[in-house]
Amino acid sequence: SAKLIDSQQHGPGCELFLVEGDSAAGAVAAVRDARTQAVLPLQGKPLNAWRASPARVAGYPLYPQLAAALGLPSPTDTSSADWAALRFERLVLLLDPDADGVHIGALMLLYLQRFAPTLLAQQRVLMVRAPLAGLRVATRDTGETEDVWAYTPEQARALRERAAAQAERWLVLREWGFRGLASLPPEVLHGTCVDPATRRADAVTPPQMQAVIDVFGGAG
To answer: Which residues, 6 or more positions from 187, have their beta carbon under 8 angstroms from its beta carbon?
Structure first.
């Protein structure tokens, strides 16, 4: 079962990352701010809580673990929850940018929409976009370095084409292709996914949630 890598502090300013598996959890834990950031690894695709009975959801190990980590009274009955006093201000979904990651993220959102909709309504659920590819380039005349990221396959292709076209001006120092969070160099993982000041993170909106319900709500 998943094991929470807890933070030293709790409450306002603190956040809980959900990631895929132990290797991703270890990589994120190594670069997080241990004072305010905790990590909970998911093991495989979660149960679709949108269709399952509350009893089945409550008996599925992940959801009680998540509820306990957040400080919710129950994984399926949050009517008595004190939302202002949760152990974490934000829940951050940091999943691989592939089909499995999209599906896992959707299943987690379906659980939250059904059993903890207040978290979504308060915009306390964030989705972080991990880069699919990246280049570290140096400007040939000045030597200044820059990291450039791609978040879609189209952007990744355009990035490689741009680097090739600018070969006279750019020297490619490193190239990254995404093979999971644990494959990213620690400073890249920290800067693009973990650090609130530099990562790409957005609160889940009602239209996004409705799209997830439309696509995944009936799926197994």
So the answer is: 31
| Sequential DSSP letters for 130-183 | --SEEEEEEETTT--EEEEEE-SHHHHHHHHHHHHHTTTTEEEEEEEE-S-GGG
* 2 confidence band (pLDDT: 50, 70, 90): low
Beta bridge partners of 94: 128
**pLDDT above 90 for 165:** no
pTM comes to: 0.90
Do residues 111 and 63 lie in contact, with contact meaning Cβ atoms separated by under 8 Å? Answer: yes
* The two structure tokens encoding residue 164: 């090739």
For residue 140, is pLDDT > 90? no
Long-range contacts of 151-160 (CB under 8 A, 24+ apart): 151/97, 151/200, 156/132, 159/133, 159/134, 159/135, 160/133, 160/135
Q: Which of 159, 142, 152 is nearest to 200 (CA)?
A: 152
Task: Fill in the DSSP letter of residue 217.
Answer: T
Angle at 45 between CA 44 and CA 51, to 5 degrees: 150
What distance lies between CA 40 and its chain's CA centroid? Answer: 11
**Tokens coding 144:** 């200044």
CB neighbour class for 171 (10 Å; exposed up to 12, middle 13-18, buried from 19): middle
- Output phi, psi for 183, to 5 deg: -85, -15
| Distance of alpha carbon 125 from alpha carbon 201, whole angstroms | 10
- Is the predicted pLDDT of residue 219 greater than 80, yes or no? no
Q: Which two tokens stand for residue 195?
A: 């650090």
